[in-house]
Amino acid sequence: MLGQANFSGGLILWGIIAVFGLVLLIWAFNFLSIFIRAAFSGAPVGFFELIALKLRKVPVGMVVDTRITAVKSGLPLSIDDLSTHYLAGGNVEMVVLALIAAKKAGIHLDYDRACAIDLATKGTGRTVLEAVKTSVNPKVIDCPAPTSGRLTIDGVAQDGIVVKAKARVTVRTNLDRFVGGATEETIIARVGEGIVTTIGSAKSYKDVLENPDRISKTVLDKALDSNTAFEILSIDIADVDVGENVGAKLQAEQAEANKLIAQAHAEVRRAAAVAVEQEMIARVQEMRARVVEAEAQVPLAMAEAFRSGNLGIMDYYKMKNVQADTGMRDSIAGGGTAGGTK
Asked: Considering its fold, how many domains does the chain have in total?
C-alpha cells in the first residue's frame, strides 16, 4: 500500500513537471522566433529581456520589431527605452517613425522630446509623425476654419463699409515649442483678429481693395506665432469682397430712434396740454357754478330787503325797468337776448 501511494505521488509530481515543462517549451518556442529574428537583424535581444517584457504585459513582437526598425535606421534605442514609453501610454511605433523621418530630413529631434510630443498629441487626433512631417513640409491653414461655419472674416473700415476677407496661413511645426505651445485654433483666432484690426484702421474700404497685401504685412509684423507650436511662414489673402454699408445702416437706425424719441417727447407735451386744457375746463365749470350760486343769492337778498324795509316796491319796479331797457339795448346791438340777464 505504501509503495502504491509513493508511486501515485511520483506520477502526480512528474505530471506537474511535465505541464510546467510544456509551458516553458511553448514560451521558448514563441520567443525563439523573435529571438532569432532580432539576432539576425543586428538588434539582438536577451532571452530574459523577452520574458521580462511578457511579464510586464508589453507586446513583445511589436517592441522587438520596432527596435529592429530603429537600429536599422541608425537609432541606438534599447528595449527598456521602448517598453518604458509603451507603459507610459505612448505610441512606440509612431515615435520611431518620427525619429527616422526627422533624421532623414536633417532635423535634430532626440528620443525624449519625441516621446513628450507623442504623449502631448495623445487624444488630439494628431501624431508626432505628423508634427515632424509638418516641420519638413509646411501646411496651409484656412482662416476662418471651414468647421467654424463662417466663410469670411468681416471687418468695418472707417467709412462704414464692411470688407469680407479670406486668408490662407502657411505654417511650419516648431518642434522645440510643440509641447505646451498653442494649437492651430490659436493661430486662426490671432490671424482673424489681425485682419479685423487692419481693416478697421483703414480710412476707406477702397484702401483695402487696392492693397490687400497690406493686411498680410500688418498681421505678420505682430508675431502672432509666439508661444504657439507653429511658425508662421506667410499669410496670403485669398479673397477680398465688399459687404453692406454698416455706417449708413447705423445712421438710419439712429435717425429712426431719434424720430421715435421726438415722437415720444411730443406725445408727452400733447398729453400735458390736454391735461391743462381739462383742468381749465374744470375751473371754468367751477367758476360758472360759483356765478350760479351767487345769482341764486340775489332773490333771497331782495326778499330779505323787502322784509327789512330797505327795498320798496317802487324801487323794485324801477330796477326791473332798467334791466328791461338794458336787455332791449343789448338785443338791438346784437350782444344778447332781450328780457334780462342770462
From this structure: 2
Taking the C-alpha atoms of residue 226 and residue 187, their distance in angstroms, rounded to an integer, is 10
Grid coordinates in use for 236? 496670403
d(CA 200, CA 163): 9
Q: Cβ(141)–Cβ(187) under 8 Å? A: yes
3-state helix/strand/coil string of 286-304: HHHHHHHHHHHHHHHHHHH
For residues 247 and 162, the answer to whether their CB atoms sit within 8 Å is no
Amino acid (one-letter) located at 107 = I
Co-location of 19 and 128 in the same domain: yes
Q: Which CATH number belongs to the domain containing residue 235 in this structure?
A: 3.30.479.30
Q: Is the domain of 128 the same as that of 174?
A: no
Strand, coil or helix: what is 48?
Answer: helix
With residue 322 as reference, give the H or E element that holds it: helix 313-333
Domain span at 71: 15-136
- Tell me the backbone φ, ψ of residue 157, rounded to 5 degrees: -75, 170
Q: Note whether 175 and 239 are same-domain residues.
A: yes
Residue pLDDT, tens place only, 78-137: 888 888 888 888 888 999 999 998 888 888 888 898 899 888 888 777 888 888 888 888
Beta bridge partners of 235: 169
The model's pTM = 0.59
Q: Please indicate, yes or no, whether residues 72 and 145 belong to a single structural domain of this protein.
A: no
**How far is the C-alpha of 59 from the C-alpha of 96, rounded, in Å?**
16
CA dist list (Å): 139 to 132, 217, 232: 12, 20, 10
Residue 307 cell numbers, joined: 322784509
Reading the block at residue 263, the C-alpha cell is: 415722437
Cis (ω within 30 of 0) for the bond into 144? yes
